[in-house]
Amino acid sequence: MDGMTPTILLDLDGTLIDSAPGIYSSLRHAFAAHGLPVPDEATLRTFVGPPIHDSMRRHHVPEELVEPVVASYREAFAAGGLYDATVYDGVPEALQALRDAGVRLVVATAKPEVFAGPIVERLGLDRFVDGVFGAPLDEGTSKGDIIARALSTSAAGLDAGALLMVGDREHDVHGAIENGLRAVGVRWGYAQPGELEDAGATAVVAEPADLAATALELLRAAA
Asked: Is 11 assigned a catalytic role?
């Protein structure tokens, strides 16, 4: 790739790992603890990926309860829910193929960084990635902000053509576009039908086995 070090930013939840079980159980605990109706599974699914405060407000949690419910969620999540997750089949092989092709891999997630790092390590993904960038606990940042920080730290001086974002939700795509990057969407995560295409993803892949080839093709085409 003409001597450049290509870099791929990777979302975590819904892209590398199926983290729904731990997130769902922690959310159910938090809603019940504050006397709120516990959302059904289809609604809980929409919480996976975006910043948790945004999701609470989008689902009409009263403003005065947003922080207490988030605090209860994080308490349950830190107590064990964060490790109730599995790596998607085929993801390690895809990451290894990208590494073998000389691609630098960096996690960029809206999950708080204090959780994301230990999860990546616990699930054995740390051997593939050169850094993990997440949100602060106060979540004063967007996905675009997180991507920008990851780029400034990990990919300084690279042309945007040597960079991609891979994620499963529209905010991954929007954050990439805000930073002048192309985005590859993955269908095995938590997006609604058509969500990734409508957001402007450059390509969408159906299976982890397709990820490396698609990403490398885009990187080479831009070289």
From this structure: yes
From 11, 13, 18, 172, the catalytic residue? 11
**Residue 12 DSSP code:** -
Measure Cα distances from 180 to 41, 119, 170, 171 in Å. Answer: 35, 29, 15, 14
- Neighbouring C-beta atoms of residue 68, cutoff 10 Å: 14
E-state strands within the chain = 7-10, 17-18, 86-87, 104-112, 132-135, 163-167, 182-186, 203-205
- Is 159 or 190 the better-scoring residue by pLDDT? 190
pLDDT digits (tens, 9 = 90+) for 67-106: 999 999 999 988 988 899 999 999 999 999 999 999 999 9
Domains of the chain: residue spans and CATH: 7-18+86-222 (3.40.50.1000), 20-83 (1.10.150.240)
Backbone Cα Rg of the chain? 17
Over pLDDT 70: what percentage of the chain? 93
Say if strands 163-167 and 182-186 run parallel, antiparallel, or are unpaired: parallel
